[in-house]
Task: inverse folding
């Protein structure tokens, strides 16, 4: 600690250091500097002579240099502005022919600690550190320990930056990742109830992201995600999504109660979103939800009824156990449905489950009567199929009106698609009723689809690199379209293509560079939906490429090509061609493309005698990381189908 | 990093525009932003928008849009934090943030932006640091007078307040480094709490949530030390074994979580619940805290609604009884009850329990205004309405007890001056600063709770 009298000492030393005579005498100069160091060690505040000491560093005397650098490293935190002056000398020393001087300069430069960074600086450094790959586990945990305090920062930017860094660095330690996500819960929840709606929205998007991997993470805090009437629409919608995802046995009652309140909201859009939300919770808690939805029908409101019926349609397909309850709720709905989507859903339900709904033929008859004034072709198509299906189970009641409908569609209908469908069914009926049954009576539900639609918990690593970026805010699918239009833009701050990277390049060891580049690739495979590839083009490409990967998966027993095709469709893998069901050996050709334009061509070969499936993948660009991700996607799909079957 | 920053008025007129990197578009991006914002479908969020490789991120503050554009995939938390910090900073330097003050102080705002951001990177946002560089004096619309009590308010909450301090005193700009220091030395310390509550139709409490802040606005010379003493029974955490400092003084004032500004020195917090800090000039949030589910005092309001609906005739009768459970000496101000009503409803009559109340039907909802509600009092209103019957609906066979679609939930908004729902109080505010003149610094300590969402299901 400085004590009285140090001012005089400093003044005297300053004078001595400035004295040209002393400066000329190497020994005397060094002596004065030694005195400064001695006082410094005793605890006197010697920061007053910083300027003079910086000047003293420009010397050939290595001993003097060392002393001065020791001084500078001690006082640099107090005099950050003046310490900048020393950088010049240090830089010059770094190119000195004497290796000792070079080493000394480098070491000193590294130990120059300036005053603490403010929150913006911290956030910048945390972001920058994402590029670093620790060399050992020990180093990794040292870094994590150092970063710990940033998780407690008062600035959300710094907390989220630190969280992301933790997630990325600890990618091989899932328990560390979970631990960090537990700690960030408090700050995220605080942001979710922040006065700033913008911050609230961004925090909600990140909560959803975390819920994808840790579904129970926010369950005990479900009340924080209840909507208040004054919130803007986009926040309410996010909150409803979050509520859907965190629902569990303990809170399902309260969450459903809350969502039911939203269903009668004055905003029709919000009410409909709430009804769809109840529908998605119904996949797990079917009975309670179907009861609520049935009650909503009693309100006889158009915008409610149509969405409830659509929810019912999706529900009976995924959860066949609720069919009975839905069939009982349906009568009377037709009075309150006017829009195309709702009509289609109702007609589908009446067609597929008509044998359980006593008045189904009469409701469909109303639609047939009014078919001339029907404006939506999609409704007419649905009506044709539904009536034909119902005809198969209740022929006596339907035969007459089916004839009238077919006549209308073939003779009077202007829409070509509807007319063709009518003709098709007419000709089908001519072939014989057994053939119609074979074609139309497909399964009435498919619970497996639900499993494919919401894939089980995604690993944290699949989104860690997106955390605290714009990706969760836009949503993954919108981000994909944005980054597709602007390919280069996908490089987040962690990617090496930005100009600022050029300056920072040398900081990363050469051998690490490659690994750095891999980071965004791993797990971030994004397959483009609706890829259109002709069979010709596929064949040509397939023949021109070499097999990049081949493996064999076990496959027992029977095989349903349709299920597989549908499952692949869900993950954006297109089927180009496949053998008919029952063929042995059975083959299929698949194609997919990721958002960087890399094509994946795949051959599946099933040999029932060996009970195994052989997969061969070809790639038009050699990129091991994405190939690995692609294979794992493929494995998951095939594995899921295999599991469901058994 | 940040490519551009601009401020738009609520009508979309550009007030401030600055391009930091020259890498994108031009001035028309401001117009583009406003067009995108107004043309956005209702279910999409306007917080982050995208147009041709450029992301727009904005906040709304005091009726203004503060927008940055960037072409990189940046940290949204960081940018939103920067924007709200900029809003505070502009408020500090211009006195208050608003369309008028910004357009009067264009030069000052540009000067500030120049110092805060360089080539799109943040340099510093510290009021203190910036004071060394800012040359422009703030232009204010009218001279400040401590005795101007015509308009009163609280600097933190944008609400009307009881007459504790002149609002304009808090909305003056921080001093520039060169201006004379003879101006008033003042400190404003506000404890502001936002209360959100959800009450079920059977009267049971579903959710209580208090978000509190202690905000400080200081006009003292920077670096002068102050000590803020909080209620001594104050404790943090959910532990059952709560040990208040002075046992026997009843249950502690408890909050679930608390966070402090990095300037706050907590050496005396454990022992005496004292926060020590040397704040820079300007506004600062000293402490934030949250409390859910477990309030020490009863809720300020209880609503007892009764609804009668005759579905056949369409006659709807709503009787609302509002009880204020505040202590007798306290009062609530600007109480407004908002009750959404079925579509197409027509008012027939209303009976209110006192003449100063007002009620009207607007935008499909009932609005009942109670300018002042004394603690312990009870008020009531009886409203008769006519609900048009949807065509084709049978007028018989339906129960009359069920409320019609679109009625409720009721929500209340109010302010509770000199009241904190958590019970947290500032015991004292001591300044170590000794003025050179004879004027002692003025200290204003205020407490206020206001509703965030106070919802009662019917």
Result:
């Amino acid at each position: 600690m400085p004590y009285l009298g140090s001012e005089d000492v400093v003044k005297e030393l300053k004078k001595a250091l400035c004295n040209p005579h002393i400066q000329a005498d190497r020994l005397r100069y060094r002596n004065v500097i030694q005195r400064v160091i001695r006082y410094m060690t005793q605890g006197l505040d010697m920061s007053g002579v910083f300027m003079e000491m910086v000047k003293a560093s420009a010397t050939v005397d290595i001993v003097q240099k060392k002393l001065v650098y020791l001084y500078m490293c001690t006082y640099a935190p107090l005099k950050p502005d003046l310490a900048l002056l020393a950088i010049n000398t240090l830089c010059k020393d770094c190119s000195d022919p004497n290796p000792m001087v070079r080493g000394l300069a480098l070491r000193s430069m590294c130990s120059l600690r300036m005053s603490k960074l403010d929150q913006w600086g911290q956030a910048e450094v945390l972001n920058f550190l994402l590029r670093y790959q620790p060399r050992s586990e020990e180093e990794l945990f040292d870094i994590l320990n150092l970063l710990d305090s940033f998780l407690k920062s008062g600035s959300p930017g710094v907390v989220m930056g630190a969280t992301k860094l933790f997630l990325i660095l600890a990618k091989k330690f899932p328990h560390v990742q979970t631990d960090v996500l537990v700690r960030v819960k408090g700050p995220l929840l605080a942001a979710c109830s922040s006065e700033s709606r913008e911050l609230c929205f961004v925090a909600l998007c990140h909560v959803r992201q975390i819920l994808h991997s840790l579904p129970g993470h926010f369950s005990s805090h479900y009340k924080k995600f209840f909507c208040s009437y004054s919130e803007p629409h986009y926040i309410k919608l996010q909150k409803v999504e979050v509520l859907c995802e965190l629902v569990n046995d303990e809170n399902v009652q309260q969450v459903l109660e809350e969502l039911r309140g939203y269903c009668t909201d004055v905003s029709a859009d919000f009410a409909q979103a709430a009804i769809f939300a109840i529908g998605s919770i119904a996949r797990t808690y079917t009975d309670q939800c179907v009861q609520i939805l049935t009650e909503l029908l009693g309100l006889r409101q158009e915008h409610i009824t149509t969405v409830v019926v659509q929810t019912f349609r999706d529900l009976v397909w995924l959860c066949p156990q609720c069919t009975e309850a839905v069939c009982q709720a349906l009568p009377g709905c037709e009075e309150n449905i006017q829009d195309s989507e709702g009509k289609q859903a109702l007609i589908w339900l009446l067609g597929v489950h008509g044998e359980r709904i006593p008045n189904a033929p009469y409701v469909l008859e109303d639609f047939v009567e009014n078919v001339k004034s029907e404006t939506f072709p999609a409704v007419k198509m649905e009506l044709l199929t539904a009536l034909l299906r119902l005809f198969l189970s209740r022929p006596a009641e339907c035969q007459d009106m089916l004839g009238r409908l077919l006549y209308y569609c073939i003779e009077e209908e202007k829409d070509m698609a509807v007319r063709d469908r009518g003709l098709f069914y007419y000709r089908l009926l001519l072939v014989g009723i057994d053939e119609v049954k074979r074609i139309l009576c497909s399964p009435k539900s498919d619970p497996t689809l639900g499993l494919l639609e919401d894939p089980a918990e995604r690993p944290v690593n699949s989104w860690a690199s997106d955390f605290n970026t714009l990706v969760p805010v836009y949503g993954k699918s919108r981000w994909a379209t944005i980054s597709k239009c602007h390919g280069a833009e996908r490089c987040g701050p962690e990617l090496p293509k930005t100009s600022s990277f050029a300056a920072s390049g040398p900081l990363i060891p050469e051998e690490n560079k490659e690994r750095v580049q891999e980071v965004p690739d791993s797990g971030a495979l994004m397959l483009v939906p609706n890829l259109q590839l002709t069979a010709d083009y596929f064949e040509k490409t397939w023949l021109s490429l070499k097999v990049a990967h081949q493996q064999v998966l076990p496959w027992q027993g029977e095989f349903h090509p349709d299920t597989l095709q549908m499952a692949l469709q869900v993950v954006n893998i297109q089927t180009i061609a496949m053998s008919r069901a029952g063929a042995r050996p059975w083959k299929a050709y698949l194609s997919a493309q990721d958002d960087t334009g890399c094509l994946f061509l795949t051959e599946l070969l099933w040999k029932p005698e060996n009970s195994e499936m052989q997969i061969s993948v070809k790639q038009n660009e050699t990129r091991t990381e994405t190939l690995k991700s692609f294979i794992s996607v493929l494995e998951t799909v095939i594995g899921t189908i295999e599991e469901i079957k058994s | 990093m940040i490519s551009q920053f601009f401020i738009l008025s609520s009508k979309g007129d550009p007030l401030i525009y600055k391009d930091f990197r020259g890498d994108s578009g031009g001035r028309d991006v401001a117009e583009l932003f406003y067009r995108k914002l107004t043309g956005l479908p209702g279910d999409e969020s306007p917080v982050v928008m995208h147009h041709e490789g450029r992301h727009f991120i904005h906040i709304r503050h005091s009726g203004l849009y503060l927008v940055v554009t960037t072409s990189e995939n940046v940290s949204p938390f960081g940018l939103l934090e920067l924007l709200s910090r900029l809003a505070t900073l502009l408020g500090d330097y211009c006195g208050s943030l608003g369309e008028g003050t910004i357009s009067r102080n264009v030069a000052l705002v540009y000067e500030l932006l120049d110092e805060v951001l360089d080539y799109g990177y943040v340099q510093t946002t510290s009021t203190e640091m910036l004071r060394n560089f800012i040359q422009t004096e703030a232009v204010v619309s009218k001279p400040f007078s401590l005795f101007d009590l015509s308009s009163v308010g609280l600097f933190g909450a944008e609400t009307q307040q009881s007459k504790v301090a002149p609002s304009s005193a808090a909305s003056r700009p921080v001093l520039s480094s060169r201006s004379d220091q003879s101006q008033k030395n003042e400190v404003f310390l506000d404890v502001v709490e936002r209360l959100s509550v959800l009450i079920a139709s059977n009267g049971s409490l579903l959710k209580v949530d208090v978000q509190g802040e202690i905000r400080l606005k200081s006009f003292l010379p920077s670096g002068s030390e102050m000590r803020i003493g909080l209620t001594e029974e104050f404790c943090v955490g959910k532990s059952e074994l709560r040990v208040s400092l002075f046992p026997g003084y009843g249950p502690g004032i408890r909050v679930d979580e608390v966070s402090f500004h990095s300037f706050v020195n907590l050496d005396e917090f454990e022992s005496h619940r004292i926060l020590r800090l040397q704040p820079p000039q300007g506004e600062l949030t000293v402490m934030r805290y949250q409390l859910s589910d477990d309030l020490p005092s009863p809720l300020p309001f209880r609503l007892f609604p009764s609804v009668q609906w005759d579905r056949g005739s369409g006659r709807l009768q709503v009787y609302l009884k509002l009880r204020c459970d505040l202590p007798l000496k306290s009062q609530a101000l600007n109480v407004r009850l908002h009750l959404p009503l079925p579509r197409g409803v027509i008012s027939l009559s209303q009976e209110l329990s006192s003449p100063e109340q007002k009620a009207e039907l607007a935008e499909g909802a009932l609005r009942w205004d109670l300018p002042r509600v004394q603690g312990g009092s009870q008020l009531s209103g009886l409203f008769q309405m006519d609900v048009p019957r949807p065509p084709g609906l049978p007028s018989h066979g339906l129960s009359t007890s069920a409320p019609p679609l679109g009625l409720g939930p009721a929500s209340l908004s109010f302010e509770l001056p000199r009241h904190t729902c958590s019970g947290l109080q500032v015991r004292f505010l001591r300044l170590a600063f000794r003025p050179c003149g004879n004027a002692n610094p003025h200290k204003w300590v205020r407490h206020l709770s206001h509703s965030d969402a106070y919802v009662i299901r019917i």
